[in-house]
């Protein structure tokens, strides 16, 4: 073998060794690059998943807040509706009560109107007969002093000798009053202040009873008293009792 062939073989070996080393080094670099790129991808994936988790958590929180707010709003609406229903029911009850009271008032007005019309008719009838010259004393006095009160004013205690007059006076007086009737002169003989004898009386049930020397007569206004009526309202009392009197000119 000549020298040229030996040199050629040596050069080939050197080139092969160099090329192998370079190839090995390049493979190692590529492996490192792949690992590096893999790590970066893993980091990016992790970061992406983390962001997704954060966004999902934010979404869940916002959704919870929204649901809670809507639930509170619905609860508030329900409470408002219940309050409105209670108010409506209360107003309906009040309306029913007011309607009932209105009906009662209408009935009372009708009754009072009828009573007023009857009083007006009685007044007109009495006026034609000159029977409206009545007035009430202003002080509480015994029977004699009440009579004197009337006489000082050109009148006397009233004489009631007809049903019409009795009804009229019973309708206008609102308290117990003396009338011009007594049996002070003769026990059991009732006489009017004009000295005429009683012919028709309008007594309460069981009266006159002369219980305890009761010689003077009152017109009793107590409409709740048993047996009271416009034609049954007289009562005998001791003449010393003090009350107002009804005078007649």
UniProtKB/TrEMBL annotation:
Entries under Gene3D superfamilies matching the protein: arf6 gtpase in complex with a specific effector, jip4 (1.20.5.1000), Mannose-Binding Protein A, subunit A (3.10.100.10)
Q: Which organism is it from?
A: Carassius auratus
The record's annotation in SMART domains points to: CLECT (SM00034)
Q: Which residues form the C-type lectin domain?
A: 134-248
Q: Which residues cross the membrane?
A: 41-65
Its taxonomic path starts at: Eukaryota, Metazoa, Chordata, Craniata, Vertebrata
Specify whether Transcription is a keyword of the entry: no
Q: Which residues form a coiled coil?
A: 67-129
Decide whether keyword Chloroplast is in the record.
no
Q: Which UniProt keyword terms apply here? A: Coiled coil, Lectin, Membrane, Transmembrane, Transmembrane helix
The GO terms this record gives for MF are: carbohydrate binding
Put simply, this protein is called: CD209 antigen-like protein C
CDD domains in the record, alphabetically? CLECT_DC-SIGN_like
